[in-house]
Design a protein that fits this description.
Elements (H helix, E strand, L loop, with lengths): L1 H19 L6 E4 L2 E3 L7 E2 L1 E5 L2 E6 L1 H4 L8 E4 L4 E4 L1 E6 L1 H9 L1 E2 L6 H14 L6 E6 L12 H7 L5 E5 L4 E4 L1 H7 L11 E5 L5 E7 L3 H4 L7 H18 L1 E6 L4 H12 L6 E7 L3 H9 L2 E3 H4 L1 E9 L29 H14 L2 E6 L2 H17 L13 E4 L8 H7 L2 E4 L1 H7 L3 H5 L10 H6 L5 E2 L10 H10 L19 H7 L2 H6 L17 E4 L8 H4 L4 E6 L2 E5 L2
Parallel strand pairs: 1-6, 2-7, 8-15, 9-10, 10-11, 15-16, 16-18, 18-19, 19-20, 20-21, 21-22
Antiparallel strand pairs: 1-4, 2-3, 4-5, 7-23, 11-12, 12-14, 13-14, 23-24, 24-25
């Protein structure tokens, strides 16, 4: 008995000694089902956090040594925890503006669309602009674009500008066309199209750069409205479980708003920011250089976003061959090579990342060609960063022979799974069955050696991480439908999907050493979910909700 007592006493002293040498955590999360995305320790029950960083990952029993008198202990009651999820492509201000203007998502028919527009017109002052976005004609019967004549029925005097969900097409009424001075003789701008009716008159649809002919006449957003839009976008993102977003494009005007709100402590979300180029904004970034990890690692600016073609739904995506359902067009490019290539070469010398919107196979090939030319023109010794981690945003329709070129060039496909499950309802008619072999080809990219930074493209899509995760693993629409030639073999595994929203976006942002996995030394960014998305049936993923979002060790959202 005496021997047993001595052994127990020695064990207690040893535990006290260990605890004495361990720094107490500020917060401990325990009783959790943790997927770390760290191959050395893939699963765990508990996490200890000091400041903004993780100091321990392991079992509930082992984490007790980090619990001091001032430690907050959070019992997650078996909830599933993954590294803080990242939306690798969205438009933050646009998310907020969607909530502030006329939101036309979910319109089921032309008449439903027009009734919502009329309701807004009835509330407007005489002559006030009616703006909004989110409509998509795919499920209307017939699935045709609205026209200025349709809008004139509900708004004869108030000018109307309504973006299609993809943002690459908009419908306007006659009042808006008159203000912009657009008539049958107005030429198409480069990279855009003024759609015409059978009599050669503008029918109200404006594609890509043609939209600017009208938008320049819409009153500018006030600073107060812009701040409100940002805050609404931040709030929605955090509540959905995103700990970081990659904000695809914008200006230094956006950045000044972000900086102000960060300084006032109003933004907790991590933002990886790009500015549009070629432009004065891009020239400023090249001149001044990047901002990395400001506001405790929450804000980085180091990327130029180029929009190289339009969208598939509005037939502006640049294809190698004509559209199957409209053979008189193959889409169009929206930036000239002579404008883009010098910027790419300068970016390599200054350590600036490039991300290029390319949806059609012609645009994807052209982007890779330009990247390759720039890289050949700047030797490794003259680059500020040897591996610039340039990106192609969307990479939706890629000729199969071009897919291996991404990995060879070190180019990252930044893709949005929800596009695939939405586009499956019209892509076959746009492209024909044969071209679907290179459409939304996630597994082909991964097998060729690429990583995929996945996102949502909100407000083009809903912007919900569980919809994106579901789309990646199921490759079916939310009702379970998959069409002919939709290549189910291109769906990804749950493990691949989790990487697409965690460690791979971190790599795409040069941040894999500080985030993307749950392990000591990294930021304590966590997304806590109501169900185990790695095991439940695919339809159940859509019913899973974020119950807590943690950024830098701080609980920034908790469901009630």
């Amino acid at each position: 008995m005496k021997t047993v007592f001595l052994v127990l006493f020695a064990g207690a002293l040893s535990l006290l000694s260990v605890n004495a040498n361990v720094e107490s955590a500020d917060v401990v999360f325990k009783n959790a089902n943790i997927y770390t995305v760290n191959r050395r320790q893939p699963r765990a029950q508990a996490i200890a956090v000091k400041g903004s960083r993780i100091i321990f990952v392991g079992s509930d029993l082992a984490v007790r040594k980090y619990e001091g008198r001032g430690t907050r202990v959070v019992d997650l009651k078996g909830a599933t925890v993954v590294p803080g999820m990242t939306d690798s492509h969205c438009h933050l201000m646009g998310i907020g503006q969607r909530e502030m203007t006329l939101n036309l998502e979910g319109t089921t028919s032309l008449e439903d669309f027009l009734s919502k527009v009329k309701a807004r017109v009835d509330e407007a002052k005489p002559g006030e602009w009616i703006t909004g976005r989110g409509w998509i004609e795919t499920f209307w019967k017939p699935p045709v674009f609205p026209t200025r004549g349709d809008l004139d029925r509900v708004s004869a005097k108030n000018p109307v500008f309504l973006d299609r969900a993809d943002g690459h097409g908009a419908v306007v009424n006659s009042a808006a066309l008159k203000i912009a001075g657009i008539d049958r003789n107005t030429p198409n701008p480069f990279g855009g199209e003024i759609s015409k009716d059978k009599d050669g008159e503008p029918n109200g649809m404006l594609l890509d750069n043609a939209q600017e002919l009208v938008t320049r006449h819409i009153p500018e957003t006030t600073i107060a409205d812009a701040e409100q839009a940002v805050m609404l976008g931040v709030k929605r993102s955090i509540e959905l479980g995103w700990s970081q977003i990659h904000d695809a494009g914008g200006s230094y005007g956006d950045i000044s708003i972000y900086r102000k709100l960060y300084q006032e402590g109003k933004i907790k979300l991590r933002i990886y920011k790009a500015v549009h180029g070629p432009s004065e904004n891009a020239e400023q970034l090249l001149r001044e250089g990047p901002t990395v990890g400001a506001y405790d690692g929450r804000f980085t600016l180091r990327t130029i976003k180029v929009v190289f073609d339009g969208a598939l739904g509005s037939r502006g995506a640049a294809l190698l061959e004509p559209y199957t359902d409209k053979p008189e067009t193959a889409g169009f490019l929206t930036v000239k090579e002579e404008e883009m290539l010098p910027m790419l070469i300068e970016a390599l010398g200054r350590g600036i990342q490039i991300e290029t919107h390319a949806i059609g196979d012609r645009a994807n090939r052209g982007t890779l060609d330009l990247y390759e030319k720039a890289m050949a023109a700047v030797p490794l010794a003259e680059r500020k960063i040897r591996n610039p981690r340039w990106r192609v945003e969307h990479a939706q329709i890629v000729n199969p022979v071009d897919i291996p070129r991404f990995a060879r060039l070190g180019v990252i496909p930044s893709m949005q799974p929800s596009h695939a499950i939405g586009d499956l309802h019209f892509a076959p008619s746009r492209l024909g069955i044969k071209r679907l072999g290179g459409a939304y080809a996630w597994q082909s990219f991964i097998k060729s050696g690429s990583i995929i930074a996945a996102g949502s493209d909100a407000p083009v899509e809903r912007g919900e991480p569980m919809i994106e995760f579901y789309a990646a693993v199921a490759r079916r629409d939310q009702k379970g439908f998959s069409g002919e030639g939709w290549h189910p073999e291109q769906a990804v595994t749950r493990e691949q999907a989790l990487k697409m929203f965690t460690i791979w976006p971190a790599y795409a942002a040069f941040e894999e050493k500080v985030k993307g996995t749950i392990e000591p030394g990294k930021f304590a960014d966590l997304t806590v979910l109501s169900a185990d998305i790695m095991k439940i049936g695919a339809p159940e993923i859509l019913r899973t909700r974020c119950v807590m979002t943690v950024i830098g060790g701080e609980i920034v959202y908790e469901s009630r």
